[in-house]
Amino acid sequence: MLVTTAVGTSASAASEATTGADVAPGAPVAHDALGFDPENMTGEEVVTKGLEQYGLDVDAVEVDLDQIQIGAEAESPQGQFAFVLQLDTDTATGTYTVTDEIQGETVATAYDVAVQTSTPERAVFTLTNPVTEETYHYDSTTANESVAFVIPVAFAAISLSTALYYLAIGAAIVIGGVLAVEAAKSISKIIAENNKRPKSKKRYHYPADVKGDKVYISPKGLTSSAAVTRGKKGHDVWSTSKAGAKTIATKIKGSKKPVGPEIHGGGKPGYMWHYHPYNRTPKMHSFYGHART
């Protein structure tokens, strides 16, 4: 956690400026424990508000299908701490640059980052210093935060985990190294890019996941057979059409009539129309259309 682990490291600016929000990145936390209500907030607003609770002034938050970028900084009498995260949505890899004041001098360290998992419950990623070739593997469910007192890269990892936590709450998640962006930001661009592809490379089905009251969709398209296989494993799928979603749900249970279409949420934003396989097993959603706004 940025609040507790910055103390004793060169990143004193971050610890001095924190407000004491009691939220542990990577841990399952009810929304009312966040210190704010993320409902009806955009992903960028959630990230900004979350990091502000750790005393960080957010310079920029950009989330789309091309790139994710988060920049934030904090100041104290001891100096300044800042970070910039840039992730490629196709690979969930990118760079994480930490700028800090060490004995009065400004030092910037850029790490290569590869994210394997990033959800509100867990963050797993690897940071590599391309100059020293030092590599640090971080898993929020097993991390020993005390190492941040003596290992700078460990502190960088924990501050990155904080940023990924709020990103997962509001805008984008990573599961199995595949990044998925909230439906409100991903669908229009997925459709537009798919329309540009030649017929042989068009895709009409995409991996999806539900977290809280939002649906997240990966831009990595699936063939029809791959979508059915994913659904049989109990994982969600989003299709570009209602007919496509119905077809996937039907094929999952040997052509038996699927359940739906239906939508939940009582009119709340973020929910989507979908089908379920016959008898609602396996427990998956075959989504279609746009997220309710």
Structure description:
The protein is α+β, with helices and mostly antiparallel strands. Helices cover 25% and strands 33% of the residues. It has seven helices and 15 strands. It has helices spanning 2-5, 12-17, 43-52, 152-170, 183-196, 224-232, 242-252; strands spanning 57-63, 67-76, 79-88, 93-102, 105-118, 123-128, 135-139, 172-175, 178-182, 205-211, 214-217, 236-239, 259-262, 274-276, 286-288. An eight-stranded mixed sheet has the order 8-9-11-10-12-15-14-13. Strands 1-2-3-4-5-6-7 form a seven-stranded antiparallel sheet. Strand 2 and strand 3 form a beta hairpin. The longest helix has 19 residues, at 152-170. It is elongated. The model is unreliable at 1-31 and 146-150 (pLDDT under 50).
Can you lay out the helices and strands and say which pair or pack?
Elements: H1 2-5, H2 12-17, H3 43-52, E1 57-63, E2 67-76, E3 79-88, E4 93-102, E5 105-118, E6 123-128, E7 135-139, H4 152-170, E8 172-175, E9 178-182, H5 183-196, E10 205-211, E11 214-217, H6 224-232, E12 236-239, H7 242-252, E13 259-262, E14 274-276, E15 286-288
Parallel strand pairs: 12-15
Antiparallel strand pairs: 1-2, 2-3, 3-4, 4-5, 5-6, 6-7, 8-9, 9-11, 10-11, 10-12, 13-14, 14-15
Helix pairs in contact: 3-4, 6-7
Number of strands: 15
**Which structural category do the helix and sheet elements fall into?**
alpha+beta
Count of runs of 4 or more consecutive helical residues: 7
Name the helix and strand elements from N-terminus to C-terminus, one letter apiece.
HHHEEEEEEEHEEHEEHEHEEE
- The unreliable regions are 1-31, 146-150
Q: Indicate the overall shape.
A: elongated
CA-based gyration radius: 20 Å
What share of residues are in beta strands? Answer: 25-35%
Largest beta sheet: what is the strand line-up? 8-9-11-10-12-15-14-13
Secondary structure: helix percent: 10-25%
Mean pLDDT: 80
Describe the largest sheet: 8 strands, mixed
Please state the oligomeric state of the protein chains shown.
single chain
- In whole angstroms, how far apart are the ends? 33 Å
